[in-house]
Design a protein that fits this description.
The chain is α/β, with parallel strands linked by helices. 34% of the residues lie in helices and 25% in strands. It is built from 18 helices and 22 strands. The C terminus is likely disordered.
Length: 525
């Protein structure tokens, strides 16, 4: 981290940004020291992305000044920001999927030959490969591969290479870990450390406290559009940051259980499911979920969890085996019929499965209720009832901004997620299947959603939770099944195992095999 007389890489003074009557940023000061990583934390809707969008030239500030390397700047467009050395990697990647990696990186910045103005792809290829080699990216090996054929972690590295290719010395990463697997998060952290070591300056937008404490030099917290404080990462804790974010103490501990599970209500026998590429993704899975129980499914993304949940919810037909609900087989039942029967679903991907982004919240509030009273009377939708229901969701789950006429696309990712959770709980189901229910949600909202799930469990609801967050699985679950290569490798008591032991199971290592190996090597357990 650069010190002494070197000016900060970024200095924002008194930045204010309004959208009508809403003040998204209220006289915010922010400083990014050269050669450092500065985390920008805050709840969903706290103004983090808006502030960085001002820095990147996507928005004009209403008040305040921007300084880059000590020089005042005015950015009317992102091109102006890029010309000043600022790059931004958005939460939702700005890539053209049918085009190759090379074409995406140089798009709008194509090098041309001196003679005829043709694109000099060879020069671009050499430069991109040099960047990839310098930072240990694999991007250089995929230059001719279409973006649509790459996993999310590689796509993100393409975005970073694109910014570096365009000369970025200052990189803004907006919620960069929201869509990544734990392994991809680890790789991203290594990339960020390499960039810092090379003298780049990074702003890391997040609501994940542990990640900010791991990677950042300094942390600034926004709440309600206002900067409430900046602290060195080495001198603070998760609890202190959480309190800064939400303005109150946040509880992280697992609550003791005070109720007893009832009879099995959702059962699966010998389930086999084929994935989109014709490969078997679920192999002979057996499970039983009881009334008043949270059944957790842990595992690294891609081990069959998605296909299993699709089979449980009616979105994918199993090859063999049976699904029973309330003692009746529902293996061939449609998704709509399962919704009407009482199986609610919080989907893994809120954009493609949970919401219609161009619909307002009222119409999104109707989804899943199109055939159910009181939302439908005599074959017609009662929009007044739907609106009342939507406004109840907005109020109870603190969806911001609280306007039922807003399009879903206008909400932050966390507020979109809160709306979906509220809508699905509002179906008054007998079984709730929740796939990554707090993905992209801030710490205060995570606590709220967790508490609601536990309350519903205690009222007798059977809940299936899929998550790659070990702390979430351990905090919520009464039993945890760990999925590896399409099978439940073990089902464990969360009070009797550590996160490290669950991690071993997620890697395909059975605990009894680990004990045996340690005993054979002379290690006492």
């Amino acid at each position: 981290m650069t010190t002494g007389n070197t000016p900060p890489a970024v200095r924002l003074e008194g930045i204010t940004k309004r959208f009508g009557d809403v003040v998204a940023n209220d006289h915010v000061d922010f400083t990014l020291e050269a050669g450092s990583i500065h985390a920008l934390l805050g709840e969903n809707g706290s103004g983090k992305t808006t502030l960085m969008s001002v820095l990147y030239g996507l928005y004009d500030q209403d008040e305040g000044e921007i300084y880059i390397d000590g020089e005042p700047q005015t950015f009317d467009t992102p091109r102006d920001a890029m010309d000043a050395g600022v790059g931004m990697i958005h939460q939702h990647f700005q890539l053209v999927e049918p085009m190759t990696v090379l074409q995406n990186v140089i798009l709008g910045h194509e090098p041309v030959t001196n003679d005829f103005g043709f694109v000099d792809e060879e020069a671009a290829r050499e430069e991109i490969e040099a960047i990839s080699t310098r930072y240990g990216f694999e991007v250089g090996d995929h230059l001719d591969v279409p973006i649509r054929d790459l996993d999310l972690g590689t796509r993100q590295r393409v975005e970073i290479v694109k910014s570096l290719y365009r000369g970025a010395e200052i990189l803004v990463l907006d919620e960069p870990t929201a869509v990544l697997t734990p392994q991809e998060v680890d790789r991203l952290m290594e990339v960020m450390e390499d960039l810092r070591a090379d003298g780049r300056s990074l702003i890391f937008i997040s609501h994940k406290l542990d990640e900010a404490l791991t990677i950042a030099d300094d942390i600034t917290v926004l709440r309600g559009g206002t900067a409430v404080g900046t602290v060195p990462a080495s001198e603070t804790t998760e609890q202190e940051l959480a309190q800064m974010m939400v303005g109150r103490e946040v509880l992280f501990d697992r609550k003791p259980r005070e109720t007893t599970p009832g009879a099995p209500i959702l059962e699966v026998d010998g389930l086999r499911v084929t994935g989109d590429r014709g490969l078997e993704k679920v192999s002979e899975v057996e499970l039983s979920v009881r009334e008043g129980e949270i059944f957790g499914i842990a595992g690294v993304q891609g081990n069959g969890q998605t296909e299993l949940i699709e089979a449980l919810t009616g979105l994918r037909t199993p090859d063999s085996g049976a699904v029973r609900f309330g003692g009746e087989e529902i293996t061939e039942m449609t998704r709509r019929d399962r919704t009407e029967a009482g199986i609610a679903y919080i989907p893994e991907d809120r954009h493609t499965e949970g919401l219609v982004m161009e619909y307002d919240l009222v119409r999104n509030g109707l989804l899943g209720n199109q055939t159910i009273a009181p939302f439908v009377k005599n074959g017609f939708i009662d929009w007044e009832v739907v609106r009342d229901h939507t406004e109840e969701i907005i109020d109870e789950f603190d969806v911001q901004p609280p306007d039922a006429d807003n399009k879903a696309s206008s909400l932050s990712g966390g507020n979109q997620q809160k709306f979906i959770v509220g809508r699905e709980i509002g179906h008054d189901p007998a079984v709730l299947i929740a796939s990554h229910p707090t993905r992209g949600v801030d710490i205060g909202s995570i606590e709220f959603i967790h508490n609601r799930l536990i309350e519903l469990r205690d009222q007798g609801l059977a809940i299936v939770v899929v998550s790659s967050k070990l702390e979430e699985i351990q905090k919520l679950s009464d039993r945890i099944a760990v999925m590896y290569e399409g099978e439940f490798i073990d089902t464990v008591d969360p009070n009797a195992v550590t996160e490290e032991e669950i991690g071993l199971l997620m890697a395909g290592q059975r605990l009894d095999e680990t004990d045996a190996a340690e005993t054979d090597s002379g290690v006492q357990t």
